Automatic annotation (TrEMBL):
Any single biological process term in GO: DNA integration
Molecular function GO labels: DNA binding
Keywords of the record: DNA integration, DNA recombination, DNA-binding
UniProt keyword Coiled coil, yes or no: no
Tyr recombinase domain ranges (all copies): 250-439
Descriptive protein name: Tyr recombinase domain-containing protein
Domain of life: Bacteria
Keyword match RNA-binding: no
Family under the similarity heading: Belongs to the 'phage' integrase family.
Organism listed in the record: Polynucleobacter antarcticus
Length: 448
């Protein structure tokens, strides 16, 4: 029962385990009780005292672990804050609160010596519920809560959420009004006022705020956001007025055939990769990732028609076959020959366009896409005219030629509401698509 009777009365006691004796500064807890007479009364008085000692031992073990692994300090501070909030301010058990406060102060001093004033101040503010530093919460979130996302998406979330953390520093500073002011600043200046790049509403809503909201929702999920706090992430991006000007400025702008020809003819002679990727895009409407993912095995015959078999696309609708334009036949022959090398047959798993390197997100199109971007920028094209604008040019040509919307969607891999059987049959598609492909024309383009 952790009580013992001595000459001068009853005492509560508890041995301190050897692993925390240095931390606590003694080998045994001992306290004289006011109870006299029966052991039962002494035990009753001793019970909350011993409970407090056991809690102190547990906290000491936590602080030892924290000192050995500083990255867990935020967890310890939050756990101490929770215990402090639950401990009574007065009554028979008020000494538990005193024990907690002593332990917090002890840890704060230890962190000051080992990690510096800022770290100890952050721990103190967090444990006492005065402020909640965002950076340690961000670090934990970034390590454990984005594993189900693609590396590219996870990196984007981390990058944008870090901007949010750098701005507000503490959770208590994140209010709805503060968020509105910050959003307004981002729309005027961007992230860095020294390098002004205003953010659009679309960028904020569809990209930047995704990572910020994800982090804030995580913080809320672990109980650090008060129940009565108005969600500062909702309704902070002003809505755009739906004018004709706004609608016309949305998204990428198509290139016209003459502009595509100009860019194609300006590609340096020694950049065969960019010339090849651009040529295939011009006469198929394929996405750049689809082109760069093509392998030898993806050149197929469908009812006597040579086709690209697209099996790697960003959408289910993108899984399709596209006939090879007659002007691309010689180019495809060259690519197959280069892939064959000294072998009797081109290896089926060899990429059709050799030499493209994966970036850190396993994207083979990244480098060639950037080269296209630099080229068109040097030629004076506006920012909204990009490689994807070639695909839009193809769609525009087909639309003006009078082809049905569903047929165009089938060819370029757009979602088709009338498609109910999954992937179209290559045998059915190819004969229908070939005349559409042949209708694509660009002035003064020589693919030889």
């Amino acid at each position: 029962m952790n009580v013992e009777k001595r000459v001068d009365g009853w005492y509560a006691y508890l041995s301190v385990p050897s692993d925390v004796r240095e931390q606590i500064g003694k080998s045994k807890f001992l306290k004289k009780l006011s109870a006299t007479g029966a052991k039962g009364k002494a035990s009753q008085e001793a019970s909350p005292i011993v409970t407090g000692w056991r809690r102190e031992i547990a906290l000491a073990r936590s602080s030892v672990k924290q000192a050995e692994h500083p990255e867990s300090s935020i967890d310890l501070a939050l756990r101490l804050r929770n215990l402090l909030e639950l401990s009574p301010d007065e009554g028979d058990n008020h000494h538990e609160r005193e024990v907690l406060q002593d332990e917090i102060d002890r840890i704060v001093e230890k962190i000051r010596v080992t990690q510096g004033i800022k770290a100890s101040s952050d721990f103190h503010h967090t444990a006492y519920g005065l402020k909640t530093p965002l950076q340690p919460l961000y670090d934990k979130w970034a390590k454990s809560k984005l594993n189900n996302y693609s590396p590219k998406t996870a990196d984007s979330y981390k990058r944008d959420a870090q901007v949010f953390v750098n701005k507000f520093v503490h959770l208590e500073a994140v209010t709805r009004n503060a968020m509105k002011e910050w959003i307004s600043f981002l729309m005027d200046y961007g992230v860095d006022p020294k390098n002004v790049k205003p953010m659009t509403r679309t960028t904020l809503e569809d990209r930047f705020m995704c990572g910020v909201r994800h982090l804030y929702n995580y913080i809320d999920s672990i109980g650090l956001v008060g129940e009565n706090v108005v969600n500062p992430m909702v309704g902070v991006i002003p809505k755009a007025e739906k004018t004709k000007v706004n609608l016309s400025n949305k998204g990428w702008i198509p290139l016209d055939p003459k502009e595509v020809s100009r860019i194609f003819k300006a590609i340096p002679e020694d950049d065969k990769q960019l010339a090849t990727v651009t040529a295939i895009a011009m006469f198929t409407g394929m996405r750049i990732n689809e082109i760069c993912s093509l392998k030898v095995a993806h050149i197929i015959d469908a009812e006597g028609i040579r086709c690209f078999d697209i099996v790697d696309s960003k959408t289910n609708a993108g899984i399709r076959v596209v006939p090879v334009h007659p002007l691309l036949d010689a180019l495809v022959d060259r690519l197959l020959k280069e892939a064959q090398g000294d072998a009797e047959q081109p290896p089926k798993d060899a990429y059709l366009i050799e030499g493209l390197q994966n970036n850190k997100y396993s994207n083979r199109s990244d480098a060639v896409s950037k080269r296209f971007g630099r080229l068109k920028k040097e030629m004076g094209f506006e920012a909204k005219k990009v490689f994807h604008s070639i695909r839009k040019c193809v769609v525009t040509q087909l639309d003006r030629a009078g082809y049905r919307e569903t047929s165009i969607a089938n060819l370029v891999g757009h979602d088709n509401p009338n498609m109910t059987t999954g992937r179209y049959s290559a045998g059915i598609d190819a004969p229908v698509m070939l005349p559409m492909i042949k209708s694509l024309k660009y002035p003064d383009v020589d693919l030889k």
